[in-house]
Amino acid sequence: MPKIIEVCNQVRSKNAGPFWITIDLRFPDDASFQRYHLAPALQPNAIAALYGVDPNLIKYFSLPTLRVVKISYPRLYPQGGVVERDMHGGQQYVRLLDVELEAQ
Length: 104
Known about the structure:
This is DUF4387 domain-containing protein. By secondary structure, the protein is of the alpha+beta class. 18% of the residues lie in helices and 24% in strands.
């Protein structure tokens, strides 16, 4: 199975306020988007396991006209907190790069 880094032409993460992180997965074409946007590895339970958060709090958005999947999850620690290590949320996408995508 291909990995996210092999399928998506852009993967990024960023703040979605001081308590949330958003990850954007951009697919290069409609065929790739249709094949993988519903992959089990991108669903709330898998993301929750990967990031250690409650699956009921995961927000998943599929945007076919943009060929983008957006996934938001609550930060473990508030932005700027004493133990928070990624102020802008820009490094959180890295965990996803080697995740394998099963075609749907």
